[in-house]
Amino acid sequence: MVERRIAPGNDGGLRVRLPPREYELLATLPERLHALLGDAGDPGGVRARLFPPAYPDDEEAEAEYRQLIGEPLAEEKRVVIEAFAGTLERASERGDALELRLDGDEAESWLSALNDTRLALATLVGIESEEQWEQGPGDDPSLIALHYLGLLQEELLDVLGGRLLDE
Which of 23, 57, 71, 125 has its CA 20 to 30 A from that of 82? Predict the structure, then answer.
């Protein structure tokens, strides 16, 4: 049986326990997401995927929406990425893994950062349909990372969902 990486903590928060290679992967995500949110264009359509049009059939309304909401949405994502990075910096070695604790707000930051990373990575590798996703990762490192992030997100949702059922 595979040990879960995310579990309820005794203090009401969550315990995250990661093997070093997984921790190293997650530690690279904030810098990569910041680069994708920067003003360097839209590599592979990632910005369009992270910030889909609100008014796809009305260019004027879309332009107004982007002017009013675009930067605050991007800033909100930057804040989430920084919160995610901050939790990773607090990790401490525990045996053969790195461990950290998350409170409710930090767990929400993790969900958002994992989701945005999955959207960005899926866009970059060209996943556009459920059928492509269901083919599995094969031995492509990007697809393996994408599936791993999905597993982590699912574990986080399972634990949070269990907490809601317990309340």
Answer: 125
